[in-house]
Design a protein that fits this description.
There is one protein chain. This protein is α/β, with parallel strands linked by helices. Strands 1-2-3-5-4 form a five-stranded mixed beta sheet. A two-stranded antiparallel ribbon has the order 6-7. β4 and β5 form a beta hairpin. α2 packs across α4. 37% of the residues are buried.
Length: 284
């Protein structure tokens, strides 16, 4: 069964965080984060401790070097913990289903005390987005699947289910082609009544077509995104993955970055898909 995906927009405004209730905030300071809260100190402390642990693990997993003054002192990420769900929704303008959110450019995360899924799922997801974007920036042509794959890979508890589900899709010929994923922007999928016809490959490598509802297309896309990132990190190591991202940051196209970081293994999209499908089939 596909695990739930938290699909969050980055276009958030935190005016109410710093204005209307600014006088009520108390703070707890960590090395890389500052947690702001009103009455829910225990939850805020737990969020702060977990965020620091996620920071260390995610940066290590991605192979990113520790920059001087990176997320230290006045550059620390701010975590806002609202008293309850109602306060959080009112302040952030998020939809009723939202349990947490992030503003990547301003390096802020928000949730509320007792938020289900925030500490173990949403928090590492958003910390990974922040670390990734701090490293690659917002200028280069970074594929959406890479950004979202990195964030989902940070949800460590879901990796085993992700691998088994990706293998199930592979066995049934239900995986999108990577070339198609490069063209897709699932953020623009809004009409829930459409049926999407997408190119795919069977287990034997023959060309096929998938007929997917919008929800299934989005779920498949996110599943493959995290599977691709997991493949690159587990198969070839964090250092090569960091080099791949560094080349994208510095302006290289995807195939150029692949060829630079994985010269004897992956030199184009076809080889990326072939090697990735071998990884998925093993399901290790």
């Amino acid at each position: 069964m596909i695990t739930r995906i938290y699909f969050l927009s980055i276009a958030f405004i935190f005016m109410s965080m710093t204005a209307s209730v600014a006088q009520e905030w108390q703070e707890l300071k960590g090395e890389h984060f500052i947690a702001y809260f009103t009455q829910e100190q225990r939850f805020a402390k737990e969020a702060l401790d977990k965020a620091e642990g996620y920071y260390r693990r995610i940066a290590s997993d991605l192979g990113y070097p520790r920059y001087k003054e990176f997320w230290l002192w006045d550059k620390r990420v701010k975590i806002y913990i609202y008293l309850d769900h109602t306060s959080y929704i009112k302040a952030t303008g998020q939809p009723e289903w939202s349990q947490g959110m992030a503003d990547y450019k301003n390096k802020q995360i928000a949730s509320f005390s007792g938020s289900r899924g925030f500490l173990e799922s949403i928090l590492p997801h958003e910390v990974a987005h922040l670390i990734f974007r701090d490293f690659v920036g917002f200028v280069g042509e970074i594929p959406l699947w890479l950004d979202e794959g990195v964030a989902q890979w940070a949800e460590e508890a879901k990796r085993k289910d992700m691998k088994s589900t990706a293998k199930e899709f592979y066995e049934k010929g239900g995986l999108l082609s990577i070339e198609d994923m490069m063209k897709l922007d699932i953020r623009n999928i809004k009409d829930k009544n459409l049926v999407h016809i997408r190119p795919a490959r069977t287990k034997k490598g023959d060309m096929a077509a998938l007929f997917l509802s919008p929800d299934n297309l989005i779920a498949t896309y996110y599943l493959q995104s995290v599977s691709l990132v997991g493949f690159l990190i587990e198969k070839y190591g964090s250092d090569r993955f960091a080099e791949f991202c560094r080349q994208l940051r510095d302006g290289k196209k995807l195939e150029e970055a692949l060829k630079f970081a994985y010269p004897t293994y992956i030199r184009n999209l076809k080889e990326l898909e072939d090697r990735w499908r071998e990884y998925v089939e093993k399901g290790d």
